[in-house]
Design goal:
10 helices; Serine Threonine Protein Phosphatase 5, Tetratricopeptide repeat; mainly alpha
Length: 275
């Protein structure tokens, strides 16, 4: 029984070893196939046959993404053609799949160069920093980092000036609006229209303007005066007659007093001359 168990254990180990060996053989075959695609693509690139080279690079990336040469070389081809969006994507893919610091350094260095072409200077600074983390001895990367920092500073200053100008323009616009409002308030025509409007708004309870009501009062007063009898030409008014009667009574009283005084003296009084 023990011998049977030992034999089964040996067979299982041999089977596992064979499976691992098959997987390794398959892996190596995949890597070899991807490498062949890359070689073919490189030759097509040198022959200036970009379309065919692009197809071969894509085959290599699809077959074995871990072979960063496919993404890296395809990114360089896009960069030379001025297609910076695709170049950035492929180099980012290479940086992600790279397992060695050498490959990561190259990918990040090229990412920094692409970002500089796109005028994304602050992002380029970060890319060059990542490249130097993987290879601090690369003087070219260090120089590019300095250039990227200067570019980022200039862009920041430009942005601040644009913001300041924008704020100034907005302030000037607000001042212009305030000036227009002040001019509108000081405009005689507008003021006259406002006074006219206010005058029209001043009405009595019956809905008529106060002036009309006052005028109505004046009309009523005139009508009342018109209702009084006016003296005809050659006739005295009642008031004049009253004044005249009072004057006559006064005169008569004076005459009577004079007569009485003469009687007391015994002197005859000469009659008044008729008019």
């Amino acid at each position: 029984m023990k011998k049977l168990l030992i034999i089964c254990s040996v067979l299982a180990t041999a089977l596992t070893f064979a499976q691992d060996k098959d997987k390794e053989r398959e892996k190596q075959l995949t890597l070899r196939t991807a490498t062949n695609f890359i070689y073919e693509a490189n030759e097509l690139t040198e022959a200036d046959n970009f379309i065919s080279a692009e197809k071969e690079y894509r085959k290599a990336i699809s077959k074995a993404p871990s072979v960063v040469a496919g993404s890296y070389n395809l990114g360089n081809s896009y960069y030379e053609k001025g297609n910076y969006e695709e170049a950035l994507y492929r180099h980012a893919q290479a940086a992600e799949n790279a397992t060695s610091k050498v490959d990561k350094h190259k990918a990040y260095h090229n990412i920094g160069n692409i970002l500089m072409k796109k005028e994304l200077c602050q992002e380029a600074v970060e890319a060059f920093k990542n490249a130097l983390r993987n290879d601090p001895t690369d003087d070219e990367t260090r120089y590019n980092l300095v250039v990227a920092k200067e570019c980022a500073a200039q862009q920041e200053n430009k942005k601040e000036k644009e913001e300041e100008k924008k704020d100034e323009d907005k302030e000037d616009e607000n001042k212009d609006e305030e000036k227009k409002e002040d001019e509108k308030k000081d405009d005689p025509e507008d003021k006259g229209d406002q006074d006219k409007k206010e005058g029209n708004d001043e009405k009595n309870e019956d809905g008529k303007p106060k002036d009309e009501k006052d005028q109505g009062k004046g009309d009523k007063k005139d009508d009342k005066q018109k209702g009084k009898p006016k003296p005809k030409p050659g006739q005295l008014s009642p008031q004049q007659i009253k004044n005249l009667l009072e004057a006559m009574n006064n005169q008569e009283q004076k005459v009577q007093e004079k007569i009485n005084a003469e009687k007391q003296k015994g002197v005859k009084v000469k009659p008044e001359k008729d008019w």
